[in-house]
Amino acid sequence: MATGYNQPGAKRQKVREPRVDNDHFQGIDKMEYNNMASLADTSAYRYYSSSERVHSRPMEDWLKYSVSYTQFRNNGYDSHGKPHHTWDDGSNTVDNYKRCIKAFFDFCTKLGVKYWTAFDTDLVPMTDSWEENRVSWDDISEYVQDLMQRYHIKMLWLSPDLHSHPRYNSGAFTGHDATTYTQAATQIKKCLEMSQRLNAECFLLWPYKEGYNAIFQSDVAREIKLFAKLLKMTAEYKDRLNYRCQLLIMPYYNCHFSRNNGWLWQHRNRRENELVNMYMWDVTSCLYFLKNNNLDRFYKVCTLPGHHMFMANVYNMLGGVVITSDVDQYDSKSFTLMMKCVLDQGAPPPGGVILKLRARECSPREMLALHAKYVDAVAKALRLASALASEQTFSKHLQQRYSTFYSGFGSRLVTSDVTMEECEDYYKRNHQSAQNDSSKYEQLDVMFQRFLDTCDHI
């Protein structure tokens, strides 16, 4: 029987931290909705009104924003690893970690976001001593629970950091050493227990370094089998803990957004053949991996906006949307299509909209402004997508374009079994009447852009 933190154990006296209510963002107003705010008023949302109902749900339900604590910590350091902010003294101590977490909760409160995400190494200073790490986890988790209760902020997901430790350079799930593999499994186990203790709604795995360098030195079949086995063990241990959360997985790939060309692959420091060697280099490879190993019933996929998100949605595997600083927040068209995908699904993904943003300048006001502009951009897109859902022009075109599949033999192609002989017979009788109509892409693209332009008053 697995032992989790929901099991009774020996009582120990709790040592409460002295309650410190200093606001690390003092002097900065909380972001509020004001659609009449002036251009110079950057402390107000023009489009995001958390309680306003859009498409039969409050906006905060559809969007379910979460802020990345990982990026919050990264935004606080310069290129030499020195901290910028007064709440961080750069030490690897529990007290310093607590101050940083407290500052982060102040930040989320100013932003008006109710969820947060983190990796386990963000919360606890890891050492080589297992017992010391356990004591630190207990101390930090109590502190975080108290903050979440006071600030009314929930944890969306906690994730084990399986890429920073030097042992994981050759992979955590797919490394060549059994001790490294068991280290990863032990870290996942502990992180799952902490996730349950903090009542996180999801649990994320990010296979960042899983792949092979050269086929002549890698047993790929063995590595993939071990990869699937650890994913399955994670799901089984979650069930033994009686922990009801959604397991998420985030495929690894590098890309950026171009205003003119849409999503482009950006290989940066990796050549294309090296990127392909990753076992989960895009959503499609991830979905096939999960399906082939009978893991698709446990996991859903977190992905960037665009094609990968649409494909995950088609297979009912969309777990969350990750917004990075590389995404162009001025591109209303792409954001609107993203939110239309969410509306078409009928419910928000369990992982919501994850804000994983890197600020150019690390001052508190700049960090707040960075997050606020993406919150507003996606909220505007939600309003546009809701208006688009009620616009008949595009839905009528879609229905007309696929009209031959709604009745007669075309409907049988969709809903029932059809033989090749029947297809041939139907073609012989109807090939002269086959239509080759234009898709009207350019016309509809102009109409779509005009629709976005004229809806600016939403």
Automatic annotation (TrEMBL):
InterPro entries per the UniProt record, alphabetical: Xyl_isomerase-like_sf, Xylose_isomerase
Top-rank taxon: Eukaryota
Catalysis performed (reactions): alpha-D-xylose = alpha-D-xylulofuranose
Gene3D superfamilies given in the database record: Divalent-metal-dependent TIM barrel enzymes (3.20.20.150)
Keyword terms, alphabetized: Carbohydrate metabolism, Isomerase, Metal-binding, Xylose metabolism
Keyword Isomerase among record annotations: yes
EC number: 5.3.1.5
UniProt keyword Hydrolase present: no
Family: Belongs to the xylose isomerase family.
Protein name: Xylose isomerase
Organism listed in the record: Galleria mellonella
Gene: LOC113517785
